Amino acid sequence: MREKFYLVSLGCAKNFVDSEEIAGAFIKDGYVIHNRPEESDLAVVNTCAFLREARLEALKTVSWLVRLKNKPQSRLKCVILTGCLTGYYDEPALMKMVPGLDLVVPFRHASLIPNLLHRNDCSDRNDHNAHVNSLNNSDSLTDGYSQKNRFLLAPPHSVYVKISDGCRNRCSYCLIPKLRGKLRSKPLDDIVAEVKALAKLGAKEVNIIAQDTTSYGIDLYGKYMLIPLLQNISRIKGLKWIRLLYAHPARITDDLLDLVAQEEKICKYLDIPIQHSDRKILHLMGRKTEPEEITDLYHVIRERIPSAVLRTTVMVGYPGEGEREFSNLLAFLERHPFERVGAFRFSPEKMTRAYYQDPRVDGEVAQRRLQEVMAGQKQRSQRYNRRLLGQRMDVLVDFYDQEKRIFCGRSAGQAPDVDGKVYLPGFSGKTGDFVQVKIIGAGAYDLLGKG
Question: What would the CATH number be for the domain defined by 4-140?
Fold first, then answer.
């Protein structure tokens, strides 16, 4: 009987791709994925550590599995931790925080976990740790992207493709360089081969992700290579939508905008995290853009791609953000409306420069500012959605909502997981279909479409 593994994926879409590679490594090695940990032989938790709340969730999840392992009726014999938490705490600290944890594997080597286990039951912990230490000292394995396999953990019609790991921007509030290291781009040919394989499995939408997609290739080729990569992916048969996420505003060039405008398969959708619009706060954050540059970019995109749907992310409550700086942000968002906005409060994280910056903004004040940003965005989103009434558009059917008994999908202007959806009353097809609908209803974030 083949051994079973249970996998928990925490955090962002980039982590989810890592989890699919972990699953692929186990399945290639003969394991079977299972959805009940107490009936599995081993459990793997791919952790997030970007914020304190994420670290607490990761430790809580691992501790729960260790307790489950110790129950007499449980089949579970081995609990393994990997992911971003291994970049925040070292292995001895994690073993101390979670007594009974069997193995800690750095995120870069997570797809090699089956090799480390030697098909044993985790009983020889010293032997496993010796192998982990040897991996940490091996540069030859650090960038072995082509050795990885993916097992899709979600329906194949819409997939994420991670083109690089780590980051070179060094924003003062961000833990990513500490957790994931320097920028490490995947070879272009490996990415194209991966997308071709995904298209054969039924992928119709590819969402390009990284910490900063616009930095792709500079470390590997000495120049930015996002445009050649998108051009190559656009030639792959079977794909209908290519969506670009996490594009740094400082590196969105005219040539990139021309490609997005001209290439039919590339969604007229750009995710551009600006974080703030006030000059002082941008400088404190270590961002590489001035307010005027952000404004100019906004107008250039609107001129070159009139149908573009723009998404951004902003942070409130950053140290030094007074009422004047916050008012500047509100005014910018009103004058330059983005169709999609995500907002979050500043979180002071040790090992970042921002942790030591003053003056801190009171938590209640930051929460009020967050609510004010999102209230304004709700109104702008509602106005935009109402302009779509009566229009016809293609919708990719994502899933069937069992509770509401209705299919749901997305337009090219809606990214998975973060944007709204299109409800499809009367649709009788299947997940992964494209259907052209007329928009007959519009809420603040969701739409109603009829074929």
Answer: 3.40.50.12160
Q: In this structure, are residues 315 and 346 in contact, taking their beta carbons and an 8 Å threshold?
A: yes
For residues 312 and 379, is the Cβ–Cβ distance under 8 A?
A: no
* Annotation: CATH topology of 392-450: OB fold (Dihydrolipoamide Acetyltransferase, E2P) (2.40.50)
What does DSSP assign to residue 340? E
Give pLDDT, residue 148. Answer: 72
Q: What is the pLDDT of residue 120?
A: 52
167 touches 180 (CB < 8 A) = yes
Q: What are the contacts of 359-368 at 24+ separation with CB within 8 A? A: 359/319, 359/320, 360/319, 361/317, 361/318, 361/319, 361/321, 363/317, 365/317, 366/316, 366/317, 367/317
Residue 319, preceding bond cis, omega within 30 degrees?
A: no
Spatial distance between the Cα atoms of 82 and 45, rounded to a whole number of angstroms = 6
| Domain 392-450 in the same topology as domain 145-387 | no
DSSP state of 186: P
Eight-class DSSP state of 314: E
CB 285 within 8 A of CB 321: no
390: region left, alpha or beta (phi > 0 left; psi from -120 to 50 alpha): left
Contacts of residue 437, Cβ cutoff 8 Å, sequence gap at least 6: 392, 393, 395, 422, 424, 449, 450, 451
Q: What is 70-113 written as a DSSP string?
A: TSTT----EEEEEETHHHHS-HHHHHHHSTT--EE--GGGGGGH
CATH class of 145-387: alpha beta
Per-run averaged pLDDT (10 residues), the chain, 451 residues: 94 96 95 96 97 96 97 95 96 96 95 81 53 40 54 96 96 95 96 96 97 98 98 97 97 97 98 98 96 98 97 98 98 98 96 96 98 98 97 97 95 97 94 97 96 85
CA atoms within 13 A on the CB side of 148: 27
Q: Comparing C-alpha atoms, which of 289, 297, 210 is closest to residue 246?
A: 210
Which pLDDT belongs to residue 451? 85
In this structure, the number of other CB atoms found within 10 A of the CB of residue 222 comes to: 8
pLDDT of residue 124: 57
Domain spans of the chain? 4-140, 145-387, 392-450
Instruction: Report the relative pairing of strands 406-410 and 422-424 from DSSP bridges.
Output: antiparallel
